[in-house]
Q: What sequence folds into this?
C-alpha cells in the first residue's frame, strides 16, 4: 500500500514537472531570443545568446512607442476592470437578494453566455458597431469588455454573497441605512477577496488581449501594447529579435502586478466556489 502511494506521488510530481516545463520552456526561449539578432535567431534558435545585449529592447521601446501604448493599455484595463467590478457586484447582489422569477432566468442566461466562443460573434460584433460608427474608440472597447467580462464576475460574486448573513443587512437598515448604503458599506467590503480575484483575472485578460483590440482599434494612436508589437511584422519579413523584445516589454507590467497580488486568486476562487 505504501509503495502504491509513493508511486502515485512520483507520477503526480512527474506530471506536474512535465506540465510546468511545457509551459515555461517556450517563454524561456522567447526571453533568450530577445537578446539575439534576427540572423542569430534563425541560425541558432535554441542556443544561448552569444552576447546578452539590450539593444533590441531599446530599439523596440522606441519603435513601438512604448509609453503611448502603455498608457492606452492602462486606461483601457483600469476603466474596464472598475466598471466590471461595479456592475457585476451590484448585479449579483440583486440576483441573490431579490427573489424575482426573472432574476433566476437572467442569471442562467448569463452563465450560459460564458460558453459562447468569442470567435463565433466577432464578425457580427464588428459589423454592428461599425454601422454605428463606434470603432476606433477606446470607450467602445471598454464597453465591450464590460459585456464579455460581467458573466464570470457575476457568477463568482453570486456564490459568495449567498453566504453573507442577511441579518447584517437587516441590522444596518434598522439603523437607518438605505439599500444602497447597505450594499456599499456592509456587503461590498466583505467581497474584498472576490473583488481582488476578479480584478487580477480581468487585468491579465484585458492587458494581454490582442484579438478584440485588433478588431476595434484600427488607428496607431489608440493601439495597446500587444497591438504595438505589430510594428515588427512586415508583409514578407519579421524582425524576430525586436518582436520578442517587444513581447517581453508588453507583459512586464502585468507580471509585476500578478506577483504582488497572486495570493488573492486562490483564496477568492475557493471562497466563491464552495459557498
A:
Amino acid at each position: 500500500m505504501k509503495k502504491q502511494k509513493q508511486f502515485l506521488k512520483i507520477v503526480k510530481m512527474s506530471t506536474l514537472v512535465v506540465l510546468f516545463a511545457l509551459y515555461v520552456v517556450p517563454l524561456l526561449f522567447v526571453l533568450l531570443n530577445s537578446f539575439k539578432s534576427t540572423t542569430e535567431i534563425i541560425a541558432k534558435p535554441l542556443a544561448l545568446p552569444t552576447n546578452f545585449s539590450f539593444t533590441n529592447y531599446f530599439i523596440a521601446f522606441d519603435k513601438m512607442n512604448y509609453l503611448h501604448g502603455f498608457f492606452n493599455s492602462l486606461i483601457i484595463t483600469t476603466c474596464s476592470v472598475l466598471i466590471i467590478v461595479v456592475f457585476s457586484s451590484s448585479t449579483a447582489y440583486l440576483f441573490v437578494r431579490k427573489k424575482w422569477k426573472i432574476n433566476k432566468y437572467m442569471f442562467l442566461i448569463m452563465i450560459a453566455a460564458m460558453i459562447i466562443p468569442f470567435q463565433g460573434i466577432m464578425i457580427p460584433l464588428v459589423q454592428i458597431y461599425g454601422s454605428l460608427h463606434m470603432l476606433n474608440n477606446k470607450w467602445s472597447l471598454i464597453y465591450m469588455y464590460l459585456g464579455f467580462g460581467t458573466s464570470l464576475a457575476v457568477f463568482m460574486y453570486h456564490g459568495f454573497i449567498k453566504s453573507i448573513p442577511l441579518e447584517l443587512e437587516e441590522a444596518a437598515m434598522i439603523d437607518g441605512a438605505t439599500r444602497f448604503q447597505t450594499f456599499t458599506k456592509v456587503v461590498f467590503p466583505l467581497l474584498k477577496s472576490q473583488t481582488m480575484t476578479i480584478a487580477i483575472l480581468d487585468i491579465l485578460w484585458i492587458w494581454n488581449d490582442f484579438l478584440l483590440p485588433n478588431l476595434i482599434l484600427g488607428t496607431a494612436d489608440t493601439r495597446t501594447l500587444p497591438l504595438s508589437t505589430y510594428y515588427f511584422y512586415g508583409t514578407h519579413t519579421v524582425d524576430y529579435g525586436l518582436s520578442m523584445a517587444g513581447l517581453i516589454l508588453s507583459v512586464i507590467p502585468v507580471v509585476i502586478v500578478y506577483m504582488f497580488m497572486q495570493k488573492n486568486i486562490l483564496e477568492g476562487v475557493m471562497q466563491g466556489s464552495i459557498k
